[in-house]
Amino acid sequence: MPIALDSHRTFFFAVIAVWLLGSSHVEASCSDAVMFPSVLEMLPGAQREVDIGQPIQRLAIADPNLADVQLTSKQAFLITSKQSGVSNVSVWTGCQIEPLQALLYVVGQASAALQDPVAQRRSNTPVLPSQVQTDIRFVEVNRTKMKEVGISLFGTTSNNFLFGSPGASPGSVSPGNVSGVVGNVPLSDTGFNIVWGGGSRKVLGALNALENSGFAYTLARPSLVALSGQSASFLAGGEFPVPVPNSASDSVSIEYKEFGVRLGLTPTVVGPNRITLKVAPEVSELDFTNGITIEGTTVPALSVRRTDTSISLASGESFVISGLISMTNMSSVSKLPGLGDLPVLGAFFRSSRIEREERELLMIVTPYLVQPMAAGAELPELPGEELKNYDPSLFELLFYEKGDFLQPAGLSR
User: On the CB side of 84, how many CA atoms lie within 13 Å of its CA?
Assistant: First the structure.
């Protein structure tokens, strides 16, 4: 019996010890601070783990369609948002009589930006450069080539039988013609001429031959600075008058049309080193060949090369925004039917002409993110600055001047 009594005492004290240890552990856990936010904000389709620092006994959410909640440990739970909306999350612990409450907001990115757009820009968006310098290069190359050869004949026989090539006449006398006994043979104003006959001879002839080639290169480099999102325009050229008759009366009014190098652009900085650019460059020049006459006044036409496009590129990068390669070949043969087809003698009754024109046009755009010069900074040398007081003597101008002042300087480089 004493042994049984001792065993019951041992068991009793063991139960008391376990109860005391458990209660002390619970008190230690309840003494920890509660780390439970009163407001939770999430985006749709996101996950967030919340650790409250105390053992969780029960967990619930008012709207299961808005988000799911599940335990990840004794003191933490995971929230998985589904769609936009508002609900509340309740957490029960052994330390509080009432459950802990948190208000859950699930909103999209657009709604979050509308709530506080100024704070959103300050916190997430870096300060972007606000000024863009755009350089446009117009490059036009024109190559021409022409070949022309022909023979002009004029003559007569004893029976007063006349023959002649196109342009030859028996009685006309004009400057540039070779006159003889029987008639005149016109010479080419632009070609080289070899003439034989004349005098007492009854046949007068001339060989006209010309080979011509040309090359023209045009370069224009306008540059314009504009604020991000703002439009700017540039024109280097002039205006020409166009008379406009008034249908209601006999009066004539004058309108002016612009021509030259024109540039219109709208840059938008979309990133720290990214620019979206809407650009409309144009190059025009007067063309009197295709002009018209209005009220006795010759109005020239315009030869125009323009483009209008939008591109996106980094600062300092270049893009060919438009290009044109055109080639024109033209050949003509004038001959006497039958005789002009003979193998050798046909050359005396035939004139040939070949023209070829090749034109290439490129427009290249290069934007740069720029900042203004600091106050008091030294400005770059302006074009011709070092020659503003240039006044050489007659001796210096004759023996020492080499034409170095023709080189580009300053901002024109």
Answer: 6
Nearest in space to 79 (alpha carbons), one of 68, 90, 92, 91: 68
Instruction: Give CA–CA dist 80/83, Å, rounded.
Output: 10
**Rounded CA gap, 386 and 142, in Å?**
35
Instruction: State the number of CA atoms in the 13 A half-sphere of 163 facing the CB.
Output: 11
H or E segment at 16? Answer: helix 2-30
What tens digit of pLDDT does each residue of 29-46 get? 565 667 778 888 888 888
For residue range 217-234, what is the model confidence (pLDDT) as tens digits? 878 888 889 998 899 998
Nearest to 309 by CA among 282, 273, 283: 282
The percent helix, strand, coil of the chain (3-state, each to 5) is: 15, 50, 30
- In which region does residue 269 sit, left (phi positive, over 0), alpha (psi from -120 to 50) or beta (all else)? beta
What are the backbone dihedrals phi and psi of residue 392, each rounded to the nearest 5 degrees, phi first? -75, 155
Task: Report the C-alpha gap between 115 and 7 in whole angstroms.
Answer: 71
- Read off the pTM: 0.51
